[in-house]
Design goal:
Bound molecules: NADP nicotinamide-adenine-dinucleotide phosphate
Shape: globular
Radius of gyration: 22 Å
Number of helices: 12
Helix content: 40-55%
CATH architecture of the largest domain: 3-Layer(aba) Sandwich
Number of strands: 8
Number of domains: 2
Order of helices and strands: HHHEHEHEHEHEHEHHHEEH
Largest sheet: 8 strands, mixed
CATH class of the largest domain: Alpha Beta
């Protein structure tokens, strides 16, 4: 607002004489007005009463979740760390599934320092290794703990072409397949918890608006490992489309079987986290980078806001019974039509089942 008023005042000022100065001021005023419009758009509350500017603490205020147990994958960084912190703040016993135990322990120590009553455990989980997923699930299931919430949060974005430990394209393997197997292996425990406690279980898949931009064929069932046609962002879009399809198919199965568990997917917003580590190839003073950075400043959210939609879907009472939906900005949103294709979701389920077996 201040920048806009200053630019307009500058434009009207009689001391501004040159055309360049006037053009510059006019451009600044237009950009500031755009910034105001964008900020208004992001800050306006949806029907939930929240917006993409709401924080994870705000959307869970007043919720007493003590007695619940959650697994948060990728809780050692970014959105996952904040999700784990806020769930713990609301009384949830949080199990952080992390591939780097040292950073997982650091996050846990920081959390307990801030919230001395927090119940937090760290367990090793590498989603790009089916053996690691099996070990994690087996250790968790044999611990006898209940499981109410599963937050499939971990992810990588736009990596160069790589294969997972099981020889599957790395983004598909990490973002979708590892979570697919993990969810399947934890389902009996979740179902038992929901039955015995009579409390609805919730599964939350972190997708992205990138789910709208996969390969032209959606999921490359016939050539998932094709290196020559590999496009790092389309491969990310493919894996994020799989996250939505996976949640939808889980929801369909739960409804069919009368299981008291919901499954939803979401876009957390755009947050500057370690996710962008493979996309920082432009030099710091590159004009494109400078332009993108200033543009990003208008739409970027912080991690407190980035974890809000996850915590809303995981804990807010408004979401009770809502399943097979896509959320963004702490509100229901429309996922792309491909991701709502029930046949495609079934096909992905069978394809994934074959791969993990
Ligand atoms: N940030 C955004 O703008 C944005 C936008 C849309 C969607 N998302 C989604 O939000 C989720 C969280 O992303 P973020 O932004 O918080 O990124 P982040 O800070 O990079 O966190 C990702 C987490 O996933 C973990 N991870 C990566 N590969 C793993 C593996 N093989 N096994 C286990 N854990 C693994 C990372 O562990 P390490 O710390 O060991 O690397 C890290 O803890 C992702 O699913 C992402 O696609 C983010």
């Amino acid at each position: 607002m201040l920048a806009c008023s200053m630019a307009i005042a500058f434009l009207c000022s009689t001391t501004v004489r040159t055309i360049q100065e006037r053009l510059l001021a006019a451009a600044a005023a237009v950009l500031s007005l755009h910034a105001l419009l964008i900020m208004w758009f992001f800050n306006r509350n949806g029907s939930s009463g929240f917006s993409s500017s709401s924080t994870a603490e705000e959307v869970t205020r007043g919720v007493d979740a003590s007695g619940l147990t959650a697994i948060v994958t990728g809780a050692s960084s970014g959105i996952g760390t904040e999700t784990a912190r806020v769930l713990a703040l609301r009384g949830v016993h949080v199990i952080m599934g992390v591939r780097n135990m040292a950073s997982g322990r650091d996050v846990k120590d920081a959390m307990i320092k801030e919230i001395p009553t927090a119940k937090v455990d760290v367990m090793e989980l590498d989603l790009s290794s089916l053996a690691s997923v099996r070990k994690f699930a087996s250790d968790f299931n044999s611990s006898g703990r209940p499981l109410n919430l599963l937050i499939n949060n971990a992810g990588i974005m736009a990596t160069p072409f790589m294969l997972s430990k099981d020889n599957i394209e790395l983004q598909f393997a990490t973002n979708h397949l590892g979570h697919f197997l993990l969810t399947n292996l934890l389902l009996d425990t979740m179902k038992k918890t929901a039955r015995e406690s009579d409390i609805e279980g919730r599964i939350v898949n972190l997708s992205s608006e990138f789910h709208r931009y996969p390969y032209p064929e959606g999921i490359r069932f016939d050539n998932i490992n094709d290196q020559s046609g590999y496009k790092r962002f389309l491969a990310y879009g493919q894996s994020k489309l799989a996250n939505v399809l996976h949640a939808n198919e889980l929801a369909r199965r739960f409804k069919e079987d009368g299981v008291n568990i919901t499954a939803n997917s979401l876009h957390p917003g755009v947050i500057a986290t370690n996710l962008f580590r493979h996309n920082m190839s432009l030099a710091n003073d590159n004009p494109i980078r400078v332009f993108l950075k200033s543009l990003a400043g208008l739409v970027l959210r912080n991690v407190q806001q980035g974890a809000a939609t996850t915590c809303y879907v995981a804990l807010n009472p408004q979401v009770k019974g809502v399943s097979g939906e896509y959320f963004s900005g702490c509100n229901l949103a429309a996922a792309c039509s491909v991701s709502r294709d029930a046949e495609l979701a079934k096909k992905l389920w069978d394809f994934s089942m074959d791969l993990v077996q």
